[in-house]
Amino acid sequence: MSDHVTGRTPAQSLPLPAWVIVQSTGLTVQLVTADNLAPSQLLRVSPHLHPGVTRLSRRAGSTWIRLEPVSRCLTLWLYLSLCFAFADTRGEFLTRNSRPNIVLLMADDLGVGDLGCYGNSSISTPNIDRLAREGVMLTQHLAAASMCTPSRAAFLTGRYPVRSGMASPNNMYRDITWLGGSGGLPSNETTFAKMLQHRGYRTGLIGKWHLGMSCASRGDHCAHPLNHGFDFFYGMPLGLLGDCGARTWPEVHRWLRVQLWVTSAVLAALPFLLLVPRLARWFPVPWTLVAACGFLAAVFFLSWFSSYGFMRRWNCVIMRDHDVIQQPAEETRAAGLMLREALAFIDRHKRGPFLLFLSFLHVHTPLITRGHFVGHSKFGPYGDNVEELDWMVGKVLAALDRERLTNQTLVYFTSDNGGRLEAQEDGARAGGWNGVYRGGSGTGGWEGGVRVPGIFRWPTVLEAGLVIEEPTSLMDLLPTLSHVGGGILPQDRVIDGQNLMPLLEGRVPRSDHEFLFHYCGVFLHSVRWHQKDCNTVWKAHYVTPKVSREGPDACHSSGVCACSGHVTHHDPPLLFDISRDPSESHPLSPDNEVLFDMVLGKMAAAVREHRATITPTPRQLSTFNALWKPWLQPCCGAAFPLCGCSGEDV
Ligand SMILES: [Ca+2]
């Protein structure tokens, strides 16, 4: 039976105590137990300490013991033993079984090909490269969806988004669109933050959330980060969108807005055009027709303006815990504020254990890069933005170094989905590079939408410089963090992620993922099969989006590729061997692949088995939930709808 099932922490299951002597004054010794053991538990785990111990107590998060004089020698012996056994050059003392601090760094829309450690030579990312050099780099790390909301829901819960209702049946609402919408991550989902919070971790989310806010009334905050296991939240509950830039091209419902605007303009012009023949007495035009056109023009204009005229004010806000503190957010300062709060969080909780999920606003458009980094890269504004992201990662790593937390902190770096091929600013491409992989953000099945960077660093546990090519998923974080943090996995639901520690530590050569399912909204587009008895990774596409002529595997006309409707259904499915053909450019057939029928048969059986595990659940991204609702709109300062404040310390 695994530790997860029994609920035992790794420290309790070992014969040796997991603790560190950090100071010894007179007869008093401070022991920092990595797993926050209570004094009575410490005695149980470390019975050989018992003879000389006269008093144990808890102060400031540490266990203090007072020893009999006869135990001084024992204290000295233990101290020296630990020095030789576990000391590094900075004098930190750790055991393999310490519960680490956890720092999760997630970029937004960063392409897997944008980093030096993944082969990029035009953008400089020394700090992220350092993480890869000092840790383990995953080259087949996969998001569960190619867009923000479903991918992040799966990341936090370890489950495919269809299981939590965080997948959309509608092409228009694949992400949460309005902060005043009613859909969001359901309260009954278990996030890794909730799990670690129950195990004594101090948990903080700083940056982008994008998983909903309220359900029935403005203040209920049913889907707020503080309702999902985070003790602290500072950030943008929706994220940085194109609409948040004062001078950038709007992003949400871009083409619907264009249609509404054009229709309004045409209807507004009609009354004037009709007046001409009437006044010139060319032919009779009834006044009622002129008035009806004017009325319709006003209705269209008002619907356009009421929907999108306040977009920046309503969607782009900064919150501290439950309070809106800046509305609209000053987009040029937002990223700097997030970094400041992240460093302050580390400083506040450095005695640990803590979980910091730093969910960067970078490198989603609008590409807002501050002075020093403008023109910094060889790859234009996008490259500059990536280099600023890397600099911020460096600041976090430096804080861990400064506080001597590096060796006892598990750091993870990833992106929520692949680079967006359709992103444009000032007529130029503004999205990331997905390396050799087809497609990008929004394409549900193609590799470029879901293959993302994945780096783990934990110096005392993981081998530096290891590269693993096995299929792994962002959903693996929940069981992995549960393992290292001593949490207990929920037993009442399907968890799709796998504990990565055996693979990361090199104890097993293969990932536990045999099949991975790639959804686009609620629609299954492709399946990956890592054949058990060999290294071949097959991928079958049942559905692919119809793409634009002007760009490879992108959907420039609609801004994002469709999951249904404007798609191609493949029967037989498009089959690729991505272990030999990672760019999915040479589809196999019975003529050139003898295993063709066997592979597709095996995958079809896996799909049937997988679908049998999906139970109906309320769709959080339904059209009704996606609609903006004035009574749910977070608002500060002036009365609704003229919300606004720039308060606090920002
Ligand atoms: Ca994203």
UniProtKB/TrEMBL annotation:
Record-linked InterPro entries: Alkaline_phosphatase_core_sf (IPR017850), Sulfatase (IPR050738), Sulfatase_CS (IPR024607), Sulfatase_N (IPR000917)
Cofactor field: Ca(2+)
Gene Ontology terms: biological process: female pregnancy
Molecular-function GO term, any one: steryl-sulfatase activity
Domain Sulfatase N-terminal: 100-485
TM ranges: 260-280, 286-305
Enzyme Commission number: 3.1.6.2
Main location per the UniProt record: membrane
Catalytic activity of the protein: estrone 3-sulfate + H2O = estrone + sulfate + H(+); dehydroepiandrosterone 3-sulfate + H2O = 3beta-hydroxyandrost-5-en-17-one + sulfate + H(+)
UniProtKB keywords: Calcium, Hydrolase, Membrane, Metal-binding, Pregnancy, Transmembrane, Transmembrane helix
Subcellular location: Microsome membrane
Any one Gene Ontology cellular component term annotated for this protein: endoplasmic reticulum
Coiled coil (residue ranges): none
Top-rank lineage group of the source organism: Eukaryota
Membrane topology summary: Multi-pass membrane protein
Protein family (similarity comment): Belongs to the sulfatase family.
Role: Catalyzes the conversion of sulfated steroid precursors, such as dehydroepiandrosterone sulfate (DHEA-S) and estrone sulfate to the free steroid.
The protein's name: Steryl-sulfatase
Designated gene of the protein: Arsh
